[in-house]
Amino acid sequence: MAIRQLKDQIARLPQQPGVYLYFNAAGDTIYVGKARALRDRVRSYLGAYGTNPKTDALLDDIARLEVIVTDSVVEALALENNLIKQRSPRYNILLRDDKSYPYLQLTTNEAFPRVLVARRVERDGSYYAGPFMPARLARRTMGLTHRLFGIRSCNEAITGRRDRPCLEYDIKRCIAPCVDRLCSADQYGQAVTLTRLFLEGKNDELLKRLQVQMTAAATAERFEEAAQARDSIRTIQTLQDRQQKMATTELGHRDVFGLTLGPAGAVVQVFEVRRGRVVERIDMGSDAAAAAAGPADVLAAAIQQFYEDRDPPGEIHVPSEPDEREALESWLSEAAGRRVRILVPQRGEKRGLVDLATRNAALAYRTRFSQGTSAEYDALETLRTVLSLPALPRRIECFDISTIQGSETVASMVVCEDGRMKRSEYRKFRVRSGDGTVSIRFLDDFAAMRQVVGRRYQALLERGGPFPDLILIDGGKGQLGAAYEALEALGLANLVAVGIAKKEELLHTRALADPIALATDDPALLLVQRIRDEAHRFAVTFHRKARTMRDLHSELDAVAGIGPRRRRTLLTTFGSVAGVRRATREELAAVVGTKVADAVLAFFARQT
Question: Which of 398, 390, 378 is CA-nearest to residue 524?
């Protein structure tokens, strides 16, 4: 079954509402579906084979899967409806009812407007709100406009000359513009204005008025009136909560860009909005070369490439300012033959759609690149946030001191770039005493850390970098303070260092009095621990080697002219230092020559 080849991808889908699209081997969309939880819904297809012939044919035809995340199931409904109409997938025609959802039409092209239910948006001068999902919400909202504002529901030609109002006036559902002594054209116009504000979602003031009305009615024991006000508040709040970004009443065309930039590359998602509806989603990706660029450069490149063979709409919405925005606008306007604007929405529905495109870009990034790379990026982003770093800590250098009661004190430095250890740049240090010689015993860990950090960044200053985005110190406040002393002496106090204490696994910073505690399963803490453990392993290995070299020290090393090779030859020939001491000049000369033989005899004679 073809869909089983997508099992790994399905396992990584988010547990969020959205739309899933199946493609065949030719790249055609063959099915569009909505889901309350994408992973659960798509995973159900793995066990759906044998349900019916139509489902079996779909499962055998699937070659590729894409998903689009939304903020709610309602938005998923709207987007599913738009995509089905736009793409006409083969299996949706066979398996689904491709229905549309209603709008509310405020007939502002009439002298005394009404609120009607409409199935499509027309350019007829009326104001449209919606779509409403489920459809009954449209009729409830229409009834609410009658109760709240008295908008008429009849088809009568209004002249104001009627003798008496109809029953709708008596039951408080119409303010009777048909009787001019009860309601003038200006009064009705004010009601229409309030109705439009309500349909546009500007309901804060309206909710306050209804709250006051409900409280007053309840205090006066007019419980039926209070209940009506309560129901009206609930309906308005329901309308506010159901933000429908995937289909709006705005009739303009626009494209919405979302961007996710990580160490493995960049992903750009573009939502094409036509006549107020998201009708297409385009995915653009780049490799690690884009990781070195900033969001402004990536957005500028994406806009240029996307519209190289496409006609741009009047507005392009982006998450942040692209590089050379004015030049891009001029180029797009000239290509389109009309004005094209690049905007960065800050709030409201437009910003919400930009954020949604960005969330889908993040999902595409995790799908396009390996799970490990994505986790590393998330860990670096968490470190940037909790440590208030100016940029992502892509290069981290970690220091560790290794000693046993001050004996053979050594240090190590390891490098991590983009979440991966870079072994070619590891460094090891022998801690020196005050006279510059290698110290056999060095009891002060703080002084050792100060010396090693100073030596490392003194060398980097002379070479001109590269300097790390974050320095990690294996230790607490004391070791961290020693490291900063070395940095300040070199004029590098702007570099950020953080210490990680053993056992408690707390992060110590210079700016905060209290340490930072991360959850034990936080990817950021796991990354820091992995880097610290690697520095510790490298330091311990070097310290063990230093001890071994010390233990292999021989009296013969003090004899002029004897190095490791001649020492090994002498010990092999005579068995031990005592055997060398008992050897005659002729025996020694036969092995190392007369000159070195005389030096050996003189050395042992001085000892005697």
Answer: 378
The whole-angstrom separation of Cα 560 and Cα 546 is 23
SS3 state at 605: helix
Collapse the DSSP code of 107 into the 3-class scheme (helix H, G, I; strand E, B; otherwise coil) and give the result.
Answer: coil
Secondary structure (3-state) at 388: coil
- Upstream peptide bond of 515 is cis (omega within 30 degrees of 0): no
| b/e 148-172 (16+ beta carbons within 10 angstroms → b) | bbbbbeeeeebebeeeebbebbeee
**Residue 177 DSSP symbol:** T
> What pLDDT, in 10s, does the model give residues 542-594?
767 655 554 445 667 677 778 778 877 887 888 777 888 888 888 888 888 88
User: Architecture of domain 2-95 in CATH?
Assistant: 3-Layer(aba) Sandwich (3.40)
Residues 281/267, Cβ–Cβ less than 8 Å: no
Q: Return the half-sphere exposure (C-beta side, CA atoms, 13 A cut-off) of residue 341.
A: 6
DSSP for 584-596, please give it. -HHHHHHHH-HHH
CB 28 within 8 A of CB 44: no
Give pLDDT, residue 97: 40
Identical fold at 382-541 and 555-607?
no
Domain ranges of the chain: 2-95, 103-202, 254-369, 382-541, 555-607
Rounded to 10 degrees, what is the CA torsion of 487, 492, 494, 496? -40
Q: Tell me, what amino acid is at 131?
A: P
According to DSSP, residue 519 is labeled -
DSSP per-residue string spanning 273-329: EETTEEEEEEEEEE-GGGGGS-HHHHHHHHHHHHTSSS---SEEE-SSPPTTHHHHH
Q: What is the CATH number of domain 254-369?
A: 3.30.420
Model confidence pLDDT, tens digit, residues 437-491: 444 444 578 888 999 999 999 988 888 778 899 999 988 888 999 999 999 998 8
